[in-house]
Design goal:
The structure is a single chain. By secondary structure, the chain is α+β, with helices and mostly antiparallel strands. It folds into three domains: 162 residues, Beta Polymerase, domain 2 (2-Layer Sandwich); 111 residues; 68 residues, no CATH class. It is built from 17 helices and five strands. A five-stranded mixed sheet has the order 1-2-5-4-3, with helices on one face. Strand 4 and strand 5 form a beta hairpin. The chain is globular and about 65 Å long. The two termini are 36 Å apart.
């Protein structure tokens, strides 16, 4: 593209480009854009991006092989599951496992199979990143939505999801998915899941917007009316539309008229897109970041009942770090609330450091 040549000729800050490329996880796209204009690049810059792209390709191939191995192990243990994102999304939407950056393997399964899946993975060299006493598992599975395991030798990260979203978001998307856990999601369901995932993280990484664009372009059978109906029934229509607007704005994604009409009708989307841009391309720390995120998550929900539930769940619902210090037994819930409030105030205080402000 001529725009890319113009930007290269203008002399970009290569260190800043490197930082943004890594943060937004768009290395394959940046590298291929640069390689197409290699006559304008220094040998050092081109070699640096070639090395990073080769490392990403090798890691992705290893993770793809590991995913196949894990799925075979879980199948032998009679654990029905379906992979989310990761290598499968890279292959199906990008056409090449090397064209997407991912660092973990997400697996979607029924809550009843969580313990069996954990045991199976532990037997294959994995260990839990969060150790819980047996008495806490029932509460954890009820209040959380996923658990992570890492391979003891290779460091691969696997996340087992029994819900798409943590209940703190007051959105039970799973109840509206027609496919049982263990079968692939439909294209309509997957597009909504990708949109909700990006919205949950305030679209902090451009990779998630590119995922939306590539998924739409690769799907020949996508039923847009069914997709809108699913998003509306689940109460995540605004989350879905925000993803569509960002894909259209950032990637030039072509959307059908019925989606464009919905975008025009929702007056809150413009303000949300501005907040996303602010969050994506600027560094917000401490109290300001907390306020921006809190207001965003309330605004991105279209139902007042969902906003009401989210208004108290967002600051008080247990996060992973809380389970490390939450006293054993639900009878200590009041103690947890006090501790959670103290940690929120410390984490989001005005003087919070950049490292501490990551949520």
């Amino acid at each position: 593209m001529e725009e890319v040549r113009t930007l290269i000729q203008a002399g970009p800050d290569w260190l800043e480009l490197d930082r943004l490329t890594k943060h937004h996880q768009v290395l394959p796209q940046i590298f291929r854009g640069l390689r197409a204009n290699k006559d304008l690049l220094s040998a050092a810059v081109l070699e640096s991006y070639q090395r990073m792209d080769a490392a990403n390709t090798l890691r992705n191939l290893c993770l793809e092989k590991e995913l196949d191995r894990i799925l075979a192990v879980l199948s032998q243990s009679e654990v029905s599951c379906v992979p989310l994102k990761g290598p499968r999304l890279a292959l199906e939407s990008y056409g090449d496992v090397a064209l997407r950056v991912f660092s973990d393997l997400d697996i979607y399964l029924h809550q009843n199979n969580v313990q069996l899946a954990i045991k199976s993975l532990i037997n294959e060299g994995y260990k839990l990143t969060l150790e819980l006493p047996p008495s806490r598992w029932e509460s954890f599975e009820r209040i959380a939505n996923q658990i992570s395991l890492t391979h003891r030798e290779r460091g691969w990260l696997v996340e087992l999801h029994w819900r798409i979203l943590n209940p703190l978001y007051a959105l039970d998307l799973d109840a509206h998915l027609s496919s049982p856990k263990g079968e692939a999601l439909t294209d309509e369901e997957m597009l909504v899941v990708l949109s909700v995932h990006g919205a949950k993280h305030i679209w902090d990484k451009l990779k998630w917007v590119v995922d939306i664009d590539r998924f739409i372009k690769s799907s020949d059978t996508l039923d847009w009316q069914a997709t809108l109906s699913l998003a509306e029934a689940a109460g995540c229509m605004r989350m879905f539309l925000l993803g569509m607007q960002l894909a259209e704005s950032y990637c030039g994604t072509k959307l059908p008229a019925l989606v464009s009409d919905r975008l025009s009708a929702d007056t809150a989307l413009h303000g949300l897109a501005i907040r996303v841009a602010e969050q994506t391309f600027s560094d917000l720390f401490g109290c300001r970041r907390f306020v921006v995120e809190y207001c965003y998550h309330l605004t991105v929900r279209e139902r007042w009942s969902d906003r009401l539930r989210l208004s108290w769940r967002w600051p008080l619902w247990p996060r992973s770090e809380d389970w490390q210090v939450y006293p054993e037994g639900d009878r200590f819930f009041v103690v947890y609330l006090v501790g959670r409030l103290v940690r929120v105030l410390r984490k989001w205080g005005v003087k919070a450091s950049p490292e501490r402000a990551v949520h």
